[in-house]
Amino acid sequence: MELTLLRKYHENGTNGQLYNGDQLICFTIELPWLQNRRNVSCIPEGQYQVVKRITKEIGDHLHVVGVPDRSWILFHAANHALIDLKGCIAPVSKLNSPGLGFESKKALEKLESLLFNLMEQGEEVFITIKKEINMNIIDRVKAPTPKFFKVLRNVGLALAAAGGAILASPIALPAGIVTVGGYLLAGGSVLSAVSQSTVEGSETD
Known about the structure:
34% of the residues lie in helices and 30% in strands. With 205 residues, the protein is α+β, with helices and mostly antiparallel strands. The chain has 2 domains: 2-131; 137-196, no CATH class.
């Protein structure tokens, strides 16, 4: 399994979105990037393996291994990066502001449930951490569309198709119906285009 963490860097913390393919799992908070300095910086971008680790103190947890010059980088619950983290990654259900989030325990339980189940089946888990790039219009159209906007997009396509069928009818139709067909075509096209350009996570941070 390949996870992708897309980061946005800020002075007071690093916010992220954690994906499995094109499916958003949760948001994340980390320390700001300070050249990978121990206890005060988030870890460098790159690809790492995530494994299950067990200790008497905290039980089962997720451990990010292979981080240069860092050790014991974990996924654990935290809602305030500067106070609660020393380099680890905290899943959160919602983002508030740089380095601040809500309902971290809930997000962590969701992530652990997903990954522990896969690991028990013998599947290896890797995470690629990289900076989120501001998308141009082409990238935005290609990006994953939220479920609600998928519905709106489909409605828009249906309206545009209906309008196009009316305008292309070989039978002479009343002027009022032709006008309605034009509105359906135009409105449906706009609705589907706007919906397709809305991507997962675009409403946050």
